[in-house]
Specification:
- The chain is α/β, with parallel strands linked by helices.
- The chain has one domain: D-tyrosyl-tRNA(Tyr) deacylase (D-tyrosyl-trna(Tyr) Deacylase, Chain: A).
- The chain contains two helices and eight strands.
- Strand 1 (2-15) and strand 2 form a beta hairpin.
- The longest helix is centred in the last third of the chain and has 18 residues, at 99-116.
């Protein structure tokens, strides 16, 4: 499992010109699922993301997590994070979980995130999504489990 997280001023996902998920300040998460991933790995990833301190505290240091600042989390499924880009000029998506299995696992991960945090939004799995955001910092991290 791979995730790219961004600290954002705002983020939203549109499908067919309709907003399907939106947050104000918080974390935009692109989440890629691999063949060996399961709900246990997904829960560990969500726990890490929700407790990761990337927001400024009173000393100007990254000392607060998303809950500490009352921020939102926007989860977007992103199979391209698992692409093998080592050879050639075209990505190889074989390391990514098949969409039929990934859809169910992603939904379970979202459900878990919603149990852990009160402000969680999502994109639409498998849809052609347009993601808009204002990266705050810019602050980006890559997680792999």
């Amino acid at each position: 499992m791979k995730a790219v997280i961004q600290r954002v001023k705002f983020a939203k996902v549109e499908v067919n010109q309709q907003v399907v998920g939106e947050i104000s300040h918080g974390i935009l998460v692109y989440l890629g699922l691999g063949h060996d991933d399961d709900l246990t790995v997904g829960q560990k990833m969500i726990d890490k993301i929700l407790t990761y301190r990337i927001f400024e505290d009173e000393n100007g240091k990254m000392g607060k997590n998303v809950a500490d600042v009352g921020g939102g989390v926007l989860l977007v499924s992103q199979f391209t994070l698992l692409a093998n880009t080592q050879n050639g000029r075209r990505p190889d998506f074989k390391p990514a979980m098949s969409p039929d299995i990934a859809k169910d696992l992603f939904a379970k991960i979202v459900d878990y995130a919603k149990m852990q945090h009160n402000n969680v939004a999502t994109g639409e799995f498998g849809a052609d999504m347009q993601v808009s955001s204002c990266n705050d910092g810019p602050i980006n991290f890559i997680f792999e489990l």
